[in-house]
């Protein structure tokens, strides 16, 4: 049995209160770094742990922090990406609702490391309970001296502010989030400059996901070797997996990074509903290319999934059974990306519009010969030709559906109907 | 606190007033229910920012409503995880019992029905947000019970909505 670390408090009564968090050893990591570590030593520790960003891209966290210039005249900012919008993902919501102090301690230690005195937590506006719990936790932590001026008798000053999103998936893209924080439409910026050099208000800025930040205090308390000892060395640590779709026990699971997808779905989540078989699994939110049943032995870590042609993404694992039409799933996914396209660049804005039209007519039994070639041509026009990864995610997802389930698309066109209806 | 005081308090968190437009719009929408032009202009005046900056945010982000919505905004998720758990059946049922299509408001202005993208609560799919609250693991019986509860909360017990619909001027 894997002992939960990140989810230790989520099922505990009053797990969101400071008293519960302190009783479980909370804020000891903050006390430890403020008493005995320089900021550079914290960065080195996180580098040694091989912690990689849990928001989707898997970039090494310590390396990201080390890109922040040491001596600048401007303030530095830490931003927490809590705009959890990737369909199939709900891990950050549960942490913020049920153990918000874990995030606050992660923010404080990380801000100390990069030299930031202000953090903005960008939470999607729908997460009303999470917002209220985090507000309450910030008030409690401030009253107890874990936030504010001269924290725990040190020279470190730090404040956390919540910024509520208002319904735009694109804000999960870090430069779009910065635009949104500056009070603009959330449209991604051209990089470089990278946020570490010129981010929020053109100041050095680090953007980390909720789950990434909550790993940090545990690394401080238990050590980098402990963290690296869990899962694959190049992609280690405890990991939150969000299980949903056609599975018996949907929910949030904390298990080692690298666990086989099959074990996660069939053993931990109980497999498909009675009488059904698994057809396919989306391993990392709808941006991650679908994996057919025969590929389920892949390990759930950044490198293994990339080698298998998909990605870990946000670890939103969506299970699809054999009674489900893959054309319908693909159509719904592309409709989502089309709806959420920010409109800044043409390949994504216009290309996805056409992809949706073609997919809808195939699903409705009105597909024409040549439609699949048309879809492939559209994917080629989008992939690699957009400002941000939204268009790429849509194209990669559709290409995988076409590659693995081409027979279903062909059947729709030839039979002039959806075979699953 | 007045709306102005709440907005000024929120604005103090940022070095730039423009950053406070989103929080200000959320405050204004809580106060007014939706964001018509005069409210957008009031927000711009309180913050001392360009009106166009306020308009462009109010029309970009989906949680901002420039048109009125009903007392209860039923926001049913129809993204993949909810779709796989038959959210479509729930949408059809809601359209049937409310007598409206998605995107519409009942004549008594009690309910607005929308479908939304992933609410981030897929462990309890199919899920619907009403106001600040999430309702998960929904089926038709639970939807009916929820609608009854909301009608009672509004002082319009089951059955009364038909009468209200017949005389929208009441």
Q: Can I get a quick summary?
A:
Chain A has 421 residues and is an alpha/beta fold. Helix content of chain A is 43%, strand content 12%.
Helix/sheet category of chain A? alpha/beta
The CATH architecture term of the largest domain in chain A is 3-Layer(aba) Sandwich
Q: State the strand order across the main sheet of chain B.
A: 2-1-3-4
Secondary structure category of chain B = alpha+beta
- Report the end-to-end length of chain B measured between terminal Cα atoms: 32 Å
Major sheet details of chain B: 4 strands, mixed
Measure the end-to-end span of chain A: 42 Å
> Helical percent range of chain A?
40-55%
CATH superfamily heading of the largest domain in chain B: Glutaredoxin
Query: Radius of gyration of chain A, rounded?
Result: 22 Å
The number of distinct structural domains of chain B comes to 2
The outline of chain B comes out as elongated
- What is the CATH architecture assignment of the largest domain in chain B? 3-Layer(aba) Sandwich
Strand content of chain B: 5-15%
Q: Write down the oligomeric state.
A: heterodimer
CA radius of gyration of chain B: 18 Å
The top level CATH class name of the largest domain in chain A? Alpha Beta
Mean pLDDT of chain A: 97
Low-confidence stretches of chain A: none
């Amino acid at each position: 049995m894997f002992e939960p670390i990140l989810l230790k408090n989520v099922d505990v009564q009053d797990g969101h209160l400071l008293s519960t968090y302190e009783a479980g050893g909370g804020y000891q990591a903050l006390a430890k770094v403020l008493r005995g570590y320089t900021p550079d030593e914290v960065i080195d520790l996180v580098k040694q742990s091989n912690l990689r960003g849990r928001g989707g891209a898997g970039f090494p966290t310590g390396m990201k922090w080390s890109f922040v210039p040491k001596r600048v005249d401007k303030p530095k900012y830490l931003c927490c990406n809590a705009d959890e919008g990737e369909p199939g993902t709900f891990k950050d919501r549960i942490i913020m609702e049920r153990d918000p102090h874990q995030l606050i301690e992660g923010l404080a230690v990380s801000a100390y490391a990069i030299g930031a005195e202000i953090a903005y937590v960008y939470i999607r506006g729908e997460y009303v309970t999470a917002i209220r719990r985090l507000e309450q936790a910030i008030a409690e932590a401030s009253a107890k001296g874990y936030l504010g001026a001269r924290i725990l008798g040190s020279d470190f000053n730090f404040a956390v502010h919540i910024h509520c999103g208002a319904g735009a998936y694109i804000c999960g893209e870090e430069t779009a989030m910065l635009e949104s924080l500056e009070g603009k439409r959330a449209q991604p910026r051209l990089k470089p400059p990278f946020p570490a050099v010129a981010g929020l208000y053109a100041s050095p800025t680090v953007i980390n996901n909720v789950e990434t930040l909550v790993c940090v205090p545990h690394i401080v308390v238990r050590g980098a070797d402990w963290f690296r000892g869990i899962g694959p060395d190049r992609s280690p640590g405890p990991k939150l997996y969000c299980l949903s779709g056609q599975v018996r026990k949907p929910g949030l699971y904390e298990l080692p990074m690298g666990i086989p997808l099959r074990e996660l779905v069939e053993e931990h989540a109980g497999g498909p509903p009675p009488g059904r078989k698994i057809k396919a699994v989306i391993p990392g939110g709808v941006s991650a290319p679908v994996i057919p049943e025969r590929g389920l032995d892949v390990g759930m870590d950044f490198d293994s999934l990339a080698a298998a042609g998909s990605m870990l993404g946000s670890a939103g694992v969506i299970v699809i059974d054999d009674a489900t039409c893959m054309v319908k799933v693909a159509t719904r996914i592309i409709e989502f990306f089309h709806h959420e396209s920010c409109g800044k660049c043409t390949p994504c804005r216009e290309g996805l519009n056409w992809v949706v039209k073609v997919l809808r007519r195939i699903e409705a039994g009105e597909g024409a010969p040549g439609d699949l070639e048309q879809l492939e041509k559209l994917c080629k026009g989008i992939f690699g030709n957009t400002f941000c990864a939204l268009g790429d995610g849509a194209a990669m997802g559709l290409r995988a559906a076409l590659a693995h389930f081409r027979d279903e698309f062909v059947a729709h066109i030839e039979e002039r109907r959806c075979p699953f209806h | 606190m007045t709306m102005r005081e709440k907005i000024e308090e929120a604005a103090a968190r940022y070095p730039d007033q423009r950053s406070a437009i989103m929080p200000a719009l959320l405050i204004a929408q809580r106060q007014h229910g939706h964001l018509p032009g005069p409210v957008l202009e009031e927000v711009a005046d309180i913050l001392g920012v360009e009106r166009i900056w306020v308009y462009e945010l109010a029309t970009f982000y989906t949680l901002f409503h420039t048109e009125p919505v009903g007392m209860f905004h039923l926001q049913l998720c129809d993204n993949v995880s909810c779709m796989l758990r038959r959210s479509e059946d729930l949408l059809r049922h809601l359209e049937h019992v409310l007598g409206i299509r998605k995107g519409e408001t009942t004549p008594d202005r009690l309910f607005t029905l929308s479908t939304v993208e992933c609410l981030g609560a897929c462990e309890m799919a199919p899920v619907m947000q009403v106001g600040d609250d999430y309702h998960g693991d929904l089926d038709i019986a639970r939807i009916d019970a929820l609608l009854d509860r909301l009608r009672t909360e509004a002082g319009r017990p089951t059955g009364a909505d038909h009468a209200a619909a017949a005389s929208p001027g009441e």
